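Much of our argument rests on the idea that a fold can be written as discrete symbols. Part of our work consisted of pairing the sequence of a single chain with a tokenised description of its backbone. No coordinates are needed to read the tokens, only the vocabulary itself. The record that follows shows the chain in one-letter code together with its fold in token form.
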Amino acid sequence: MEQLDERVVRSRRRICDAVIDLVVDHGLAAVTIDAVVARSGVARTTLYRHWPSRDELVCDAIAGALPEPVCTDTGSLAGDLRALARGLAAGLSDPRYSAILGAVALPGTGDGLDEVRAIATAARHRALCDVVERARRRGEPIPVDGVDGLIRSIAGPLFYRRFVEGAPVSRVLADRCVQRALAPLHEALFDRAARSNLRTASGVR
């Protein structure tokens, strides 16, 4: 029984690897049952035993290939955000990971990938929630737009750079996005400190 289970695991892995290879080499439209069978070397009957349809196979393979974002505790909000942004930039710069992300980046693909997209988005949302909550526990100020504002300010430009402009996504760009996302917060703190200094200088308490 254990030997059979091991063969099943290997077959499923070969099939899912074939799906991802096709996505990376030729795009999502190239993933057909015939192409997966030819690329994986696994029998069509075996494939259909695990996935009743092409869409279910595609969703399973891509969901399994999307890594969870790594939420590093650097000791500061800015440092944590830079770590997340740099990780995303590195992924978008990797041809394989970028192709997988590109397959789920836009809604309405007709491949049943909306749920996969929602799961991937939720994972990044959770990572940012963890970062913001850590900052709150440290006593750091939090951007008024919260997690959703950070996603739009940091992830948005990186995805636009890669998938709309078709340009490289660098670590420098990731750091710049974080800097811009936190700029209003820093400006508010500066203004508050300036007003406090002014009141002190004028003898107002």
Notes: Residues 171-201 form the longest helix (31 residues).
